[in-house]
Structures are given as C-alpha cells and as structure tokens.
Amino acid sequence: MQTIIDQLKSYRMAMGLKQEEMGKKLGLPQSHLSKIERGVTDPRLTTVLEMARVLDQELVLVPRQLLPQLHALLYGQEEDERRWRLDEEDTS
User: Fold this and answer.
1) What CATH number should be reported for the domain whose range is 2-54?
2) What's the pLDDT tens digit per position in 35-71?
3) 3-state SS track over 47-61
4) Distance between CA 87 and CA 91 in Å, rounded?
5) CB 48, CB 1: distance < 8 Å
6) Rounded CA gap, 35 and 63, in Å?
7) Who's near 38: CB < 8 A, 6+ residues apart?
8) CA nearest 50: which of 24, 14, 31, 30?
9) Distance (Å, rounded) from C-alpha 42 to C-alpha 22?
C-alpha cells in the first residue's frame, strides 16, 4: 500500500498541492494526511481512492497474470517505448 501512497504523494507534490489544501479537498486534517503519507497511519481504501481522484488519477485492479501483457502494451520491450498515445498528444 505504501508504494501507492508514495506515488500519490509524488503526484500531489508535482501538482504543487500542499497537504493542507489536499486535506481540505478530502475533508481530512493536514496532520492526518501527513501520517498517511509517512506510513504512520493505514488509510481506508475509500480514502486512497479519493486521494487518487483529487489528483486526477484512478486506481485499477489488474489480475497478476495479465501484468506482463499490460506492461508490454504500455511500454513495449523497453520501458520508454510506449505502444500507445493519448488522443491529445501530437503525432508529428
């Protein structure tokens, strides 16, 4: 779970969103969000889902046996060789 929380923290920081601001959006005190991000408190799954959505992310469950195919679809043989692109991305 901490890997997911670490990713969400990275997204929060990249967006320039302070813990206090995020806490307000979630209805949580900043101190509680800090404990979640530091791994001191185990959050509820609903809290993690809401954290992701505030950061314009979505949590998705993938069957473990499909992880290699998902990785290949997203990254190809090399991690930086994506096999997809967003509609908004320039193709030129």
Assistant:
1) 1.10.260.40
2) 999 999 999 999 999 999 999 999 999 999 998 888 8
3) HHHHHHHHCCCCCCC
4) 9
5) yes
6) 30
7) none
8) 24
9) 17
